[in-house]
Amino acid sequence: MPAFAGVLHAVQGIGSVLSGLIAGALLRRMPDRVFAAAGILLFAGGVALRALPSVPAASAASAMIGAGLPCVLIAAMTAVQREIPDALLGRAAATANTLLFVPNALTLAVGAGLVALVDHRILLPAAAAVASAAAPGCLLTGRRVGARDEVVRKGERPGHRRS
């Protein structure tokens, strides 16, 4: 069965590529927060579906997981690029990357330990529930006026101040 994991990873990769290809068009039609929440819910549905003992279900789950994860990353990095003044963008993007990817590494380590102790048919629905609970957090607050908007409103170029 480990060889079949390669097939599932390929299907997940296809889901990610397709998600990336349509992300720009979707972000022009919906707010970043809605795009991120949809991605989280797509990921959560895929994780829950992965618990079923079926090859078609596992394949669909992989595609859903692959399509959902990039939505969150794309929405977050798009928000950073839109909201942060040019002069601070490099540092802010580096910080955002750390905040997005370090928790992933930590949860992979915790998950690897838990799978040795708890049946995957319990862990997967639990992980899906936790992910689903995170999605509404993206929708609870509206868009705030960012630093870039403040600079533009004052008639200055973003990232530059008048002397």
From TrEMBL:
Transmembrane residue ranges: 6-27, 34-52, 58-80, 92-116, 122-140
UniProt topology in membrane: Multi-pass membrane protein
The keyword Transferase is assigned to this record: no
UniProt xrefs under InterPro entries: MFS_trans_sf (IPR036259)
Location(s) in or outside the cell: Cell membrane
Keywords noted in UniProt: Cell membrane, Membrane, Transmembrane, Transmembrane helix
Membrane is among the record's keywords: yes
Main localization (coarse): membrane
Protein name, UniProt field: Major facilitator superfamily (MFS) profile domain-containing protein
Record organism: Streptomyces olivaceiscleroticus
Organism placement in taxonomy: Bacteria, Bacillati, Actinomycetota, Actinomycetes, Kitasatosporales
